[in-house]
Amino acid sequence: MVILKKIDMVDEVMQKLAETGVKGGTIVEGTGMAKALVNMEDIPIFGMLRHMLVDEEKLVSKLLIFVLKEEQVNKTRETIKKVIGDFSEPNTGIMFSIPIKDVEGFGE
Questions:
Q1: How far apart are CA 41 and CA 18, in angstroms?
Q2: Torsion angle (degrees, nearest 10) of CA 16, 18, 21, 22
Q3: Percentage of residues in the chain with pLDDT exceeding 90?
Q4: How far apart are CA 69 and CA 105, in angstroms?
Q5: Edge-to-edge strands of the sheet including 93-95?
Q6: Do residues 26 and 65 lie in contact, with contact meaning Cβ atoms separated by under 8 Å?
Q7: Which residue, of 2, 9, 44, 56, has the greatest Cβ tally within 10 A?
Q8: Ordered DSSP codes for 38-106
Q9: Which positions ≥6 away from 71 have C-beta within 8 Å?
Q10: Cβ count near 68 (within 10 Å)
């Protein structure tokens, strides 16, 4: 899974992954917690901070989800990092994997 703040990079990531044989990814649009809090009137937040957050464009993210064969995981991570760069940079995103034990509908 990749939660990507650099949403302008999604197309390139998907293209490079397709070139390495990754298929069947899902992309979901996300909203950061700060943006959700801005819209809640009952949460105490300073007016100027609320104004800054409303105008902040970097609050949108894309969630890229892939179900991979174990042998695809490292190559996928490497490919994503080549496109995105260093995930330790602010407002880049995060990438992680979760072991999946049972899968149905994987096309096999």
A1: 43
A2: 100
A3: 46
A4: 13
A5: 26-31, 60-65, 2-4, 93-95
A6: yes
A7: 2
A8: HT-TTS---HHHHHHHHH-GGGEEEEEE----GGGHHHHHHHHHHHH--TTSTTSEEE--------SSS
A9: none
A10: 20
Model confidence over 10-40: pLDDT tens digits?
999 999 999 999 988 999 998 766 666 655 5
Between 40 and 96, whose confidence is greater?
96
CA trace torsion 84, 85, 88, 93 (10° rounding): 0
Six-digit token string for 75:
């190559």
| Residue 66 structure tokens | 């892939």
State the pLDDT at residue 57.
46
Tokens describing residue 39: 């819209």
* pLDDT for position 47: 55
Which pLDDT value is given to residue 51? 54
